[in-house]
Design goal:
Layout: H1 4-17, H2 20-25, E1 27-35, E2 45-49, H3 50-63, E3 64-77, E4 80-91, E5 96-109, E6 112-120, H4 123-126
Parallel strand pairs: 1-6
Antiparallel strand pairs: 1-2, 3-4, 4-5, 5-6
């Protein structure tokens, strides 16, 4: 049986390879996926299906040129995994360099991600 931490680490490995289909394979068919932040950031908001999450990743790639993405600490608590990390990206179209810590919280049930919340210091994007 796959544990929650191994599913989450597999998702980050896939993201590092740019393999969005592999990430989508780790999601439940119905998923509660939400990036917290202001509407000015195009990829914030709620998603409920694999297709909508695929659009989320496309919106991230269109809005931000990722330079560094580092999951640094994994905190497992049963079905829930909290990940603390850091990223550096160039925001488009402004061309502004953004460095920020982030927090992602996953819920994994029966080997599939059923819920995800993401947040970072969105003010860093607009400074």
């Amino acid at each position: 049986m796959t544990n929650s931490l191994s599913v989450v680490k597999a998702a980050y490995d896939a993201f590092g390879r740019g393999d969005v289909p592999a990430i989508l394979d780790l999601l439940a068919d119905k998923v509660d996926w939400k990036m917290l932040g202001p509407p000015a950031i195009p990829y914030t908001g709620q998603r409920g299906s694999k297709e909508e999450v695929a659009r989320f990743f496309a919106e991230v790639a269109q809005a931000d040129e990722m330079q560094s993405f580092e999951p640094r600490e994994f905190i497992e608590a049963g079905e829930n995994v909290t990940v603390l990390g850091f990223e550096r990206f160039m925001s488009r179209p402004e061309g502004r360099l953004v460095e920020t810590e982030w927090i992602h919280v996953f819920t994994v049930h029966d080997g599939k991600v059923t819920r995800w919340r993401g947040c970072y210091d969105t003010a860093a994007r607009f400074v």
